[in-house]
Design a protein that fits this description.
The complex is a heterotrimer of chains A (380), B (285) and C (288). In chain B, 74% of the residues lie in helices and 3% in strands. With 285 residues, chain B is mainly α. Chain B has one domain: MetI-like (MetI-like fold, Orthogonal Bundle). The longest helix of chain B has 42 residues. The radius of gyration of chain B is 23 Å and the shape is globular. By secondary structure, chain C is mainly alpha-helical. Classes of the chains: A alpha/beta (380), B mainly alpha (285), C mainly alpha (288).
Chain lengths: 380, 285, 288
């Protein structure tokens, strides 16, 4: 039985949320539907991740680092590329998790610019890592050592990061290097978009106002959103997007937009007119974090995390997926085989660049009033 | 088997209905009941409590009235557009296409084989500001210099029309296809002009198809969120977008449930009024 | 076809403009039909075109050059083939089941008066009016509470698809049943056929075009569904789920290849059918 699920909690949850508990369901919530406890090392790891987020050998159709892991430890990996959106995946798994049941996964990956990492931890739906099994955690880059939602890194470790800044199309406009310009330059009217993600868009606006996104109160939030709202009302901002800005930016429909560095790396290959930069007042960094959901095997997952924090392994992964690794020394390892990718500052930002990147206040991400207001502004 | 039905005529409807209705009962009504329960809950995720929170409904209506109205407006426009666009095409397929009927039916449905995202990206490509379509429209001054097609109400309604086109076309085809050609010949023999023949024979006979098509288009279109998300600005947001956000991002399940019920109820009321207008036998035969 | 024999007064040859105008009128409808098909196929054309693109990066937005390698190596993107197979399997299965169930319901509603007919009619419309996210999520809750019976995966997706397709089938088939000429059935029964034989040999064949149209619609719905499928898939990937997932970082041309292939195969089958019917008609004519 999950030690965190006291009788009181069970009764409250039973009465409150999902009340169609059939007898088997009740038993499962009570007594652990999983045959093994989460304390034993298993020979299978169930890893749920985002698509195209791990190295792939196209010829052999294998994932080299996973095979290396199996060779080294004897643990087979079932890799599920089933996460395509934080909110949608959360909707899928919150049912069992809220009843204290496992979801048949040992590692899941959520982005910290969404409300879900903070929520998972505050609700107690993730297990603590076994740090003794992860000596390689020493390789974690200092910038990632203490994120707002998990200050002691008890529950999570970064997988890959990405940066949020401004991308612009040089064939349409000159450099767009500040949020002020993005939101207020009349030349760009109607050719600008921002992201649906609150943390990204509002975070950048907060920085543009001179405030600090890691500590967001109502004033700070409203000032930033006011600025964005003005731009929406005036028609400056064409619309809000997920990563579907990519096509419009490439085709020249957009002059500039809030964009993720990872996308631009790919788009650059086909359209050299595209540029990406951190805004003058600062940019945001988001990180996809590995969590062990309730019922996941802590030792097995921790063993894998340790494996992946070996710079050589992380170098292989980042070298393929082209996102920012959280591990010291990965750049040097990659430079041995692939100096070109290793010298790409969008994948391996230097310390100076990292200084300019911020994370959003994770408590504020779960502030219902903030969320409500943002939805109004983005049209939801 | 034939004699069984002959001897027990009253059982027949229930036997026919049983499997389908049972499926819907188990996998729609039961979840719906739970949804109803959820719509009267209050609290913060994940600990909701059942408190007969009728204010969920009144809040939903007052906060999102604009979105409801807009959704019905867009769905209505798209339905009319789909009807006007589809009818001539379907007429041609039913009466003139001969052996090629099935090929053309496939053309109608084919866009669905290419998932929504890819279809939309293709349209974004075609309707891009720098693309040929907008260029042409600017050239003939339908659009201004700076005019655009994307991120407008037009784009959203056009997107809904395009995506629900088969839902209008196929029921229309179904009822046009069965029209006996001899009726039209008889009309001609009685000196009716082609227009009169159409208006007084074809059109009335295709009425069940029109009714079915408009319902199959309007009802799901009202709850659509995807077109507004990709093709519109915040000013085009439909109630589907709100429900989506309430459910996924706000994690406000009671509100999402209440909004869904209001949408369903409004559609049902509309359905009843529609049945009054077109005649209830058009809905049940 | 009767031809009326009446004295037609000799007319002078009509003017050119009248002849042109009547030619236009005759062909206007055909021209419109072709234009409409062009409109429907425009995005498909772009998709097919870009399946031959050779992009340098991971997105397929800029035309770089023609290549056949995407078609040759269509399977080189991990997970794509499996997702398409899943989609087709579920699509066919769910469509068949939903079409059978839906046709039966339509027959029941239209041809019989029974208690609860009005309610049944309303019940049929409800799933269509429910937003997908809510439909999917409430169904998921049901499955999560009945884990002894249902495990999330292929069969839960199947169940969900049948559930939302049935309504569309019912409404489509009803459009044919309302106003169905029963005289042929009555004639058959007068000639001694019992109800089942009449149904099999008269009703069903006449109903077939509507049933096929409904099945086509149902299949389209199933193969394109994302939201409900995603929530109830428990890790399985159908084609739309796969595409939405990968689109965050990549839109590989192989996706276009697969989508184009499905379309072309379907058209191919339909064209083959036309050819076969043509041959059959010729053979019959030749045999006489």
């Amino acid at each position: 039985m999950n030690p965190r699920l006291t009788r009181d909690q069970l009764l409250r949850r039973g009465a409150a949320g999902v009340t169609f508990l059939s007898l088997p369901g009740l038993l499962a919530a009570c007594g652990g539907g999983d045959e093994e406890t989460s304390g034993e090392l298993r020979d299978v790891l169930n890893f749920a991740n985002w698509p195209l987020y791990i190295d792939v050998d196209e010829e052999t159709r294998q994932r080299p680092t996973l095979d290396q892991f199996t060779e080294q430890t004897g643990i087979r990996v079932n890799y599920f590329e089933e996460i395509n959106d934080n909110a949608e995946y959360f909707a899928r798994v919150q049912g069992p998790l809220s009843q204290g049941q496992g979801i048949d996964r040992d590692i899941v990956v959520f982005t910290d610019n969404s409300r879900f990492p903070g929520l998972l931890i505050s609700e107690g739906w993730v297990e603590q890592l076994d740090r003794d099994l992860i000596p390689n955690v020493a390789n974690l880059i200092p910038a990632q050592a203490s994120p707002p939602f998990d200050p002691d890194r008890e529950y999570s470790l970064p997988w890959q990061s990405g940066m949020t800044g401004i991308a612009w199309n040089e064939s349409v406009t000159g450099p767009v290097e500040s949020i002020e310009q993005l939101l207020e330059d009349p030349e760009l009217r109607g050719k600008v978009t921002m992201l649906f993600e609150l943390a990204d868009s509002v975070g950048l606006a907060i920085l543009a106002n001179g405030d600090d996104p890691s500590s967001v109160d109502d004033d700070v939030f409203n000032r930033a959103v006011d600025r964005i709202e003005t731009a929406v009302d005036s028609g400056q901002i064409r619309r809000f997007t997920g990563n579907d800005y990519a096509q419009a930016l490439t085709s020249g429909d957009l002059a500039a937009c809030v964009a993720w560095s990872g996308d631009v790396i790919q788009l650059l290959a086909d359209n050299p007119d595209l540029k990406w930069g951190v805004p003058a007042d600062g940019g945001m960094i988001w990180t996809d974090n590995m969590f062990i959901p309730t019922g996941g095997s802590v030792p097995t997952a921790s063993t894998y995390m340790n494996f992946v924090y070996d710079p050589a392994v992380m170098a292989q992964i980042s070298g393929y997926v082209n996102f920012v690794p959280p591990v010291e020394g990965a750049k040097e390892e990659l430079a041995k085989n692939d100096p070109e990718t290793a010298s790409n500052t969008l994948i391996f930002p230097d310390a100076e660049l990292l200084e300019q990147l911020h994370q959003y206040d994770s408590e504020a991400l779960n502030n219902d009033e903030h969320i409500s207001r943002w939805q109004q502004v983005t049209g939801q | 088997m034939g004699s069984f039905f002959h001897r027990h005529p009253r059982v027949t409807p229930y036997l026919l209905l049983a499997p389908g209705i049972a499926w819907l009962a188990a996998f729609f009504v039961v979840p719906l009941a739970f949804l109803g329960y959820q719509s009267l809950q209050s609290g913060v995720f994940p600990s909701y409590e059942f408190t007969f929170e009728f204010s969920n409904f009144s809040d939903a209506i007052s906060d999102y009235r604009e979105h409801f109205v807009r959704s019905f407006l867009y769905a209505g426009l798209a339905t009319v557009a789909a009807l006007l666009l589809a009818y001539p095409l379907v007429y041609w397929i039913a009466f003139r296409a001969g052996p090629w009927k099935n090929v053309f039916l496939l053309f109608i449905v084919a866009p669905f084989f290419v998932t929504y995202l890819i279809r939309t990206l293709a349209w974004l490509n075609i309707l891009a500001d720098q693309g040929p379509v907008v260029g042409f429209l600017r050239g003939i001054h339908v659009l201004d210099e700076d005019g655009r097609l994307l991120a407008t109400t037009f784009a959203v309604v056009a997107g809904i029309t395009y995506n629900f086109f088969p839902f209008m076309a196929l029921p229309l085809y179904v009822s046009l296809e069965q029209i006996d050609g001899r009726l039209l010949e008889a009309a001609k023999d009685l000196y009716a002009s082609p227009t009169q023949a159409f208006l007084r024979v074809t059109l009335p006979l295709s009425a069940p198809g029109i009714v079915a098509g408009t319902l199959l288009t309007f009802i799901p279109a009202a709850g659509d969120f995807i077109n507004a998300r990709f093709l519109g600005t915040p000013n085009q947001a439909m109630i589907g977008n709100v429900i989506q956000a309430q459910f996924l991002e706000s994690l406000n399940y009671p509100s999402a449930a209440a909004l869904s019920f209001i949408l369903m109820a409004t559609i049902l009321v509309g359905l009843i009024l529609y049945a009054r207008v077109v005649g209830p036998e058009r809905l049940t035969g | 076809m009767t031809t009326a024999t009446e004295a037609v007064p000799a007319r002078s040859r009509p003017r050119v403009s009248t002849r042109v105008w009547s030619a236009v009128k005759r062909h206007a409808l055909t021209a419109y039909a072709l234009l409409a098909v062009v409109y429907l196929m425009l995005p498909i054309a772009v998709v097919i075109l870009f399946s031959f693109n050779d992009p340098a990066g991971r997105f397929n937005y800029v035309w770089q050059g023609f290549t056949l390698s995407n078609w040759a190596e269509w399977d080189s993107v991990l997970g794509l083939r499996e997702s398409v197979v899943k989609s087709l399997q579920i699509g066919v299965l769910a469509t068949v089941v939903a079409t059978v169930l839906g046709t039966m319901v339509a027959l029941g509603i239209v041809r019989h008066r029974f208690r609860g007919r009005g309610t049944t009619n309303v019940l049929v419309f409800l799933p269509m009016s429910t937003p997908e996210i809510v439909l999917g999520a409430s169904l998921l809750t049901l499955f999560l509470n009945t884990t002894s019976i249902f495990t999330l995966g292929f069969w839960t997706i199947f169940i969900a698809h049948v559930m939302f397709i049935v309504s569309f089938v019912v409404v489509t088939v009803k459009a044919r049943l309302i106003g169905f000429d029963r005289h042929l059935e009555e004639a058959a029964m007068d000639l001694g056929a019992n109800e089942w034989t009449t149904f099999r040999k008269v009703t069903l064949p006449l109903l077939m075009p509507a049933i096929l149209a409904a099945a086509l619609l149902g299949f389209a719905l199933s193969i394109d569904d994302f939201v409900i499928t995603y929530l109830n898939a428990g890790g399985e990937q159908t084609f739309p789920v796969y595409v939405w997932g990968i689109a965050r970082v990549s839109v590989p041309p192989q996706v276009n290849v697969v989508a184009s292939a499905i379309f072309l195969v379907a058209i191919g089958i339909a064209l083959a059918n036309v050819l076969w019917q043509y041959r059959r008609a010729n053979r019959q004519r030749g045999a006489r």
